[in-house]
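Letters spell out the chain; backbone shape is given numerically. Take this protein:
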Amino acid sequence: MRAQQIKRRILQDVKRFFKSSEEEKFFPGRTYINYAGRVYDEKELINLVDASIEFWLTEGRYSKEFGEKLARFFGIKYCILTNSGSSANLLAISALTSPLLKEKRLKPGDEVITTACGFPTTLNPIIQNNLVPVFIDIELGNYNIQVEKIEKAITKKTKAVFIAHTLGNPVDLDKIMKIVKKYKLWFIEDNCDSLGSKYKGKYTGTFGHISTCSFYPAHHITTGEGGAVLTNNPILKKIILSFRDWGRDCWCETGCDNSCGKRFSWKLGKLPYGYDHKYIYSHIGYNLKMTDLQAAIGIAQLEKLPGFIKTRRKNFSKLFEFFKKYEKYFVLPQWEKDSEPAWFGFPLLIKKDAPFSRSEIVNYLENNKIATRMLFGGNLLRQPAYQGIIRKTIGNLKNTDYVMNNLFWIGVYPGITEEKMKYILNTFDKFMQKIE
């Protein structure tokens, strides 16, 4: 009883601490406006301190609650938490190599259709699992895969399609789903930048056989580091858990023993009968679990997600309306008519005849304390890490190259207040006045 009273006082003090902390003041031209960042209140701090007092340092009650609530948000049966979105992507592709999938498993040399325009950890798991990435160019304006080229890229070796919804902008899921069903392909959605985006009223991340999320501070919600893998398939859930948890065959939750009821009655591989099931390994796996401290933050963040999505869309709309007057210089973002993006950022592609370069405008913005970003790795095939990889390319990647050289994006995250937005728009106006 005494311990609970002390704990209550500590958590009350945490709340008072947050309420008494000074809100950061914004000074136009002096305060740096990030492209993304943490948005939180006392609830995240209270959950974090509560979890730290319990000192259950790996998965525990908070992880269970966060996973269940995230699954309910999507309307998906299974949510497997992990330590990052990159790990989630690695688990998604690795799971498809499992012998448990029999003739549907991916084997070395099998082909996976993707794009070269994106973040490295969409591509890396394909290479790391000895699969062959097949690259298709992107559309200018929405920066997603050219869907009409997917069917042309399919061969007898094609087994999967693995693509991201670029900057939260859903791909043409109707066409992709028809293709993957027609050719009986696996479809993996990298939903790391798209939490809350919808296509025909349904959340992205619910269309693929497997989808992934990231909770890095730049994303729609954060746990610091963290991610999740989602699926409706019970076999895939079992495989993903195995790969995440050292490759073990056992599915006991952390701190539990003998969930199967026959811990010392298994006969698997060439092990002796009765070898402890907790130490039997059916896959060559990893240890990629989330901690309870991270999950505790995630629960509080998930409650804020609807508001975060609303603010991202509002900030995007303000920018879109503003940049209509500068359409002769920029290709403005485009999206599918049936989609409702929860935007990760606002992309601006500089047209060929614009009287300024990307470097000029990006340097101007950065010098005026406005953060900018490239579209991740640009053309990944031009990055030093990917020289000499085994790959196939369908047609050319001219749009990917054009984006690499001419696109940048700015933030729309909820930390961009009306005051900051006004400064951003005024700064763009000043740059345009100089060049017009």
Summary: The CA atoms of residues 241 and 251 lie 7 Å apart. The radius of gyration is 23 Å. The longest strand covers residues 158-164. Residues 2-33 form one domain.
